Amino acid sequence: MTSFPVSKRLFMKAAMGCLLAALPLMLGACGLHMIKKDSKAPLAVKPGKAVLVIMRTGSFYGDSDIKNYLDGKYIGGNKDNCYFMTDVKPGAHYVTADGGNKDTVRMNFEAGRIYFLRQGVVPGIFRSFTRYFPMTLQEALHEAQEIDYVVYDTQHPGKDLSQEDFEKEKKDFNEEVKKDPSHRRDVAQYTGFNRVK
Predict the structure, then answer these.
(1) Nearest to 185 by CA among 112, 124, 108, 116
(2) Is the residue at 157 inside a domain?
(3) The whole model's pTM is what?
(4) CB neighbour list of residue 165: distance below 8 Å, 6 or more residues apart
(5) Within a domain: 197
């Protein structure tokens, strides 16, 4: 057995301690409550469902975790260069991002279709701001090859929005649309894709 001098053993203990302390941060490198997968799942739709894919590519404030909700239910967190997918029942749903601000959009999901949203992050003076942007199929397929794929960790679930917060997001969104019918029309009229190849 190799014997190391005391100073080397202390260094190795300290290094191991730092590694163990950093492990949760590395595991959460693509968002809290998410698990990075080595292989990417096919971009496919289950019968009677739609699929929502949320992608976040390189940006400012890349280490900030942005939480995402579907009708107030937590569906995943994103940091830079990651994407995740979630099944959606057909119909109108509210999608909310929480990352320095809240960005809520209403989308109409059709069975058999895939919807790609870019999780945009805009630097502000004191904090970042997030906003959803619809993606073209070409953009989405290219980004999916370049960034990490993560799945929701159901063993360590994220917290849903409170009913009060969800109702406020819906109300604020609907009031904005009433004042300005073009508000977030880019997302509201986004129809997704029925095939990805």
Answers:
(1) 108
(2) yes
(3) 0.81
(4) 72
(5) no
Residues β-bridged to residue 102: 98
Could you tell me if residue 88 is inside a domain? Answer: yes
Per-residue tens of pLDDT for the chain, all 197 residues = 445 454 545 444 544 444 333 333 334 446 568 999 999 999 989 999 999 999 998 755 556 789 999 999 999 998 889 999 999 999 999 999 998 789 999 999 999 999 999 998 877 666 668 999 999 999 999 999 999 999 999 899 999 999 999 999 999 999 999 999 999 999 999 999 997 76
Domain membership of residue 38 (yes or no) is yes
Total domains in the fold of the chain: 1
H/E stretch holding 7: helix 6-27
DSSP code, position 41: P
